[in-house]
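Reviewers of the previous submission asked for a worked example of the structure-prediction workflow described in the proposal, so we include one complete record here. The input consisted solely of the amino acid sequence. No template or homolog information was supplied to the procedure at any stage.
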Amino acid sequence: MVKAVIFDMDGLMIDTEKLLVKYWMEAAHHYGYDMKKELALRIRSQSADITASMLRAEISPDFDYHKVRELRIRLMQEHIDKYGLEEKPGLGELLDYLKGHHYLAAVATSTDMERTRRYLGSLGRIQYFDQIVCASMVENGKPEPDIYLEAAARLGIGPEECLALEDSPNGVISAYRAGMYPVMVPDLSQPEEDIKKLLYQCVPNLAEVIRVLQELELQEKPVTIY
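From that input alone, the workflow returned the following structure tokens.
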């Protein structure tokens, strides 16, 4: 029985993945590194240690991950300060449904706690969540399952009782490894065949998650025999 929905944040609830890709590339180019868009897409939601190793292997052995990341964060924040944040279609409708139907809700994000609270607070959405878990709170980030297992534990339920919403392949792998129902809401890319095999469903927007929950509710409803 599904009792909770656990949300990724960037690219899933908030339209920030396009900014992450844009400013990873700009920050890398600023320091003389040639980062292609395809590589910037591949590192979405991935833990810092895995990302750093990947970038050194694929761009340059001397790729300074922390220096580039620091500039990426600054450039992205300047953009947000100027233009604000946009939430993804259907978020409010889904959050209202969860609240009205007594589901638990949590956030499992690779973004740090300060920015997570600031982003969700600026959109007036933070009060909808019972727990927020960030990568810094667990030993291993996505695609390892730690962050989703921690979110379930903090909600006081088992991972098999959770629907996990993700927009990126690394996030889907993390949720699948945790033993949850992974549902993908694609943002910058559609799932490849290897990711499709891990999904419970793939839907075009967050409002469609309501249909997924309703289908699960029907499956879980006990049959009354007269």
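The longest strand covers residues 104-109. We consider this example representative of the routine output the project will generate in years two and three.
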